[in-house]
Design brief:
- With 410 residues, this protein is an alpha+beta fold.
- It has helices at residues 9-22, 30-35, 39-53, 57-77, 84-106, 115-136, 141-146, 154-157, 163-183, 186-203, 210-235, 245-251, 269-276, 278-293, 318-334, 348-357, 382-398, and strands spanning 259-266, 300-305, 308-314, 336-338, 363-365, 368-374, 404-406.
- A 5-stranded mixed β-sheet has the order 2-3-1-6-7, sandwiched between helices. Strands 4-5 form a two-stranded antiparallel ribbon.
- The longest helix has 26 residues, at 210-235.
Length: 410
């Protein structure tokens, strides 16, 4: 279920909460309000350290961009935006910041101190120097030209934010949203939050407490995204997307007094690897994993290791879980896997369309054997139940495979 929730869900909730908090800040005591301007700096430093530790170059750049915007606000714009230098700086940032945010959303992760990472940092530093020199020597022509209205449409002309800024941020928001829906990556959700924060900063920069609140929220979201992404790497199998054996071992002690464990094993998996190669073997594991994600009856699937999977049914006995496992077994057996050719796209949807268009391609069927056991007096601990379900799995194998066997059945 977690993987079916869009990655922008939590960032959106946090940003909406930040908007609600803005109206409550005046109710705080003056001492507490005086601490608020420091929060973005503190959270940006914490986030940058985490990004460095986990080698998240994109997150570091997003924090750097939002942090620079906040520093400029506190040091210049908070006093006045009407002076010639402040007005020119606003125009320059209205071009440079959205452009960089768009680049960050489009980038692939290349680490922190890799060659690509260093080039990106130099690129940001070079832009900073260019903006500083243009203001130092009052060279405003390119920034004014780029922030002129693109369309003569009254609703757009009435906005404070330049139209180019809106266009760049709109594209960046679409990119980050598309990636968050397709990849289920918390980092992409953090990128979306950064885009929204930049939009709010340029639109409501002079509104009381808005920059402090949204810059803090954006940094907090990026910190959360690093932690969540690292958790996923540790507890989620990268190939199938299922929770890993480590996650299973952590959840076993808290299953309670009634639960069922099912061990699922791909039939003749070694034959797939030997006949078609390991790439096809990975395809088989992905297919089985995708079906396990849709198991009914409240089952929670895990990648146990190799070609073995585990499904936990909390609060259910073996006979209650058996129909759901039989449905799972049948859905896998009915699926026809088209072997991936050299020209078959890696994208799942495009691959499915090509498979439907070319039914003459070589196809193979995949089956699984399933062993099921529930907590009983004879096997009361989770480890004993797993051993019992494993024994039932071998019983299913010995009976001819592609079937579900319950522990203790004949």
């Amino acid at each position: 279920m977690q993987r079916k929730i869009p990655a922008i869900f939590v960032p959106t909730v946090v940003l909406l909460a930040a908007w609600a908090v803005v109206f409550r800040i005046p109710q705080l005591s003056p001492d507490k309000q005086s601490l608020l301007p420091l929060a973005p700096y503190l959270l940006t430093v914490v986030g940058s350290l985490l990004a460095w530790h986990f080698r998240r170059g994109r997150v570091f750049l997003a924090l750097l961009i939002v942090g620079i915007c906040y520093y400029v606000y506190r040091s210049i714009f908070i006093y006045s935006i009407e002076t010639p230098h402040a007005w020119l700086l606003y125009r320059a940032l209205a071009v440079v910041v959205p452009l960089n945010i768009l680049f960050v959303t489009l980038m692939r992760e290349k680490g922190f101190w890799s060659a690509a990472g260093r080039i990106r940092l130099v690129f940001v530093a070079l832009q900073t120097v260019i903006v500083w020199l243009s203001i130092r020597f009052d060279y405003h022509a390119p920034w004014v030209a780029m922030t002129r209205p693109l369309l003569n449409w009254p609703p757009l002309e009435s906005l404070v934010v330049p139209q180019l800024t809106l266009l760049l941020l709109f594209v960046a928001a679409c990119v980050s949203m598309a990636r968050s829906f397709s990849q289920f990556s918390p980092i992409e959700g953090g990128m979306f939050a950064s885009v929204v924060t930049v939009f709010v900063l340029f639109g409501w920069m002079l509104s009381p407490h808005v920059p402090e609140t949204f810059c803090s929220a954006s940094a907090l979201i990026l910190i959360m995204s690093i932690i969540q992404e690292s958790h996923n790497m540790a507890f989620r199998d990268d190939l199938t997307g299922l929770l890993s054996r480590r996650a299973l071992n952590e959840q076993l002690p808290g299953l309670g007094n009634r639960f069922t464990v099912a061990m699922v094993d791909v039939d003749h998996f070694k034959r797939f690897n030997d006949t078609h190669g390991h790439a096809v073997g990975d395809q088989v594991l992905k297919v089985v994993g995708s079906h396990l994600m849709n198991v009914t009856g409240g089952g929670r699937p895990f990648r146990y290791g190799g070609e073995e999977f585990t499904v936990i049914f909390s609060g259910k006995g073996a006979k209650e879980a058996a129909p759901h496992l039989e449905q799972l077994r049948q859905s896998i057996a009915d699926y026809r896997l088209a072997l991936r050719g050299e020209d078959r796209p890696k994208d799942a949807k495009r691959g499915k369309n090509q498979r439907n268009a070319s039914r003459g391609a070589q196809e193979v069927s995949v089956t699984v054997s399933i062993g099921v056991a529930e907590k009983l007096a004879s096997h009361a601990t989770p480890t004993d139940v797993i051993k019992a379900s494993d024994a039932a799995l071998y019983m299913a194998k010995n009976k001819g495979r592609n079937q579900v066997c319950l522990a203790g059945s004949r």
